[in-house]
Structure prediction request, 590 residues.
Amino acid sequence: MAKEIQIDSMITVGTLAEKLDIPATKLIGELFKNGMMVTVNEKIDADTAQIIIDELGLEATLVAKSEEVEAPKRQKTSDDPNAKTRPPVIAVMGHVDHGKTSLLDRIRNASVAAGESGGITQHISAYQITHKASDGDRVITFLDTPGHEAFAALREHGAYLTDLVVIVVAADDGIKPQTLEAIRFARKAGVKMLVAANKMDKEGADINRLKQQLAEQELLPEDWGGDTVVMPVSAKTGDGVNELIDMILLMADVEGLRAVESGPATGLVIESHMEQGKGPTAVVLVEQGTLKQGDFVVAGDVYAKVRTLNTPEGKSVGEAGPSTPVIVSGFKALPEFGTPFDVVANEKEARSRAEEASKSQDARGKLSGASAGDLLKAMSRTNELQELNVIVKADVQGSLTSVVDSLKTLNTEEVAIKVIGSGVGSFTENDLYLASTSGAILYGFHVDLPSGLRQLAARDNLKVRIYKVIYELLDDAKNELSALLAPEVVITDLGRLKVKQVFKTTRTEVICGGEVTKGNLAVPSNVKIYRDKEEIADVEAVRLQRGPQEVKEVMEGELCGVSLKTESKLEILEGDTLEFYTKELKERTL
Ligand code: GDP
Prediction:
């Protein structure tokens, strides 16, 4: 029988040779033949190792010790006899400007109870609507994924979180790179797709051309004998939107989405951020059971005693059932996007579970490119105007007016001051209460915080800023606004490589070689792969080699080898062009 070798996801060449009982030089030689120049101390991944083992004709099977962390998998249904039909969770994806935002707005407006605003505007990553269907009111949960090109990893995770992906394609423009990306993500996540052919009101709209393009992507439309549903809509006129919602519900019914409402909740973290006055806060999606105020929740290596539960619209609720997105405060630190959560009996158990998870941190998946934390920070700030809630108190009306007016001059298209309370005189208990529910900063101009309220302010971690000079107050507000600015994504083009040979292709890596036809290449970096001028993938370059030597940079005109890290199997062909670039997130100031 084949020998089984337990390994982590990576293993050093030396250790593998030892386990296989062969000289390390033999292993290195075989790796070399496969286009990999490695030393005895370097690590190779399990897939590569297995290929080499097979090529050497050795009888050994590698068994991964720790499962690779996959994107979150949802619990779509429940076998429990008490399970009931639950609302579907939908993501709307598509190419930029194809009308994703307009369509979502239209869907919200076409529905009753789009949610009363609680007066607190913040970025929401999920919300629910109630649709008047022929068989009564039906609830649908929508997940909002960021459209910016830097957030592909988050969009991909978004696809995993949903029951159905609605792919929006402008019928006058047809399939574009982000449409292909959305199709790829939905396929990878094993989620059904529904195509909304938008902008049907426009003159150039051509649904047949779109259907043709879909067919080319192996999404054969229903009326052409396939099983892809294509719904013509116009987010502008509203035509077809009700039919689209009905179709979403119909497809959800076919999926048999069920959940048990009673019992402790389980679900997933879909966003987390620091909220003024509330500390680490997460938007979670309940999958099974009911989440209640006071519950102890563990999500990976962090836990919470649920202090407040709010709907995405800001309404306070005591509990949240299946398919409901809810904002939870009370976390000790920020839980990571995509982490599953569950409810445990008490704080002791919550703490020990979180500590245990923290020890096996390394096993946790990372989003590619910039760190997950950076992306989340940026994500929660993209799309919308970010507002800074403030409460202003001043000694006299004249000063109050000038402070409030001056604060408004700081507003830009991206960030703005929102004065949610103001008045003449010292801060009152009411001001503090308002600050703690809205996360507002309390600005005082020539006024005090009465000593009787200091303890309350400290307990709720309120930001109380008292100034005697208006410019200092404005500087402070400016700094706070700067912190809300979405970081700039700086893309720097490095150079281009023409692929002449492909050495190795595994599920996680492609090694190929070629000539640098423009610029200088460096690693680590990002790489867009083009075939016949069409972009087919965007991956990371992790290693460069000139001859047998690993290098950090190669120049125009040189021949080199490059190792690309991929998340799904990628086929590169001779003649493809690789465009190297770097992507950085840079903090901005006003
Ligand atoms: P997103 O980038 O996919 O979110 O796209 P938006 O919703 O921001 O829409 C991009 C542009 O297309 C905006 O100018 C919209 O007004 C316009 N648009 C969206 N849907 C329609 C539609 O159905 N018909 C027409 N004529 N224009 C639309």
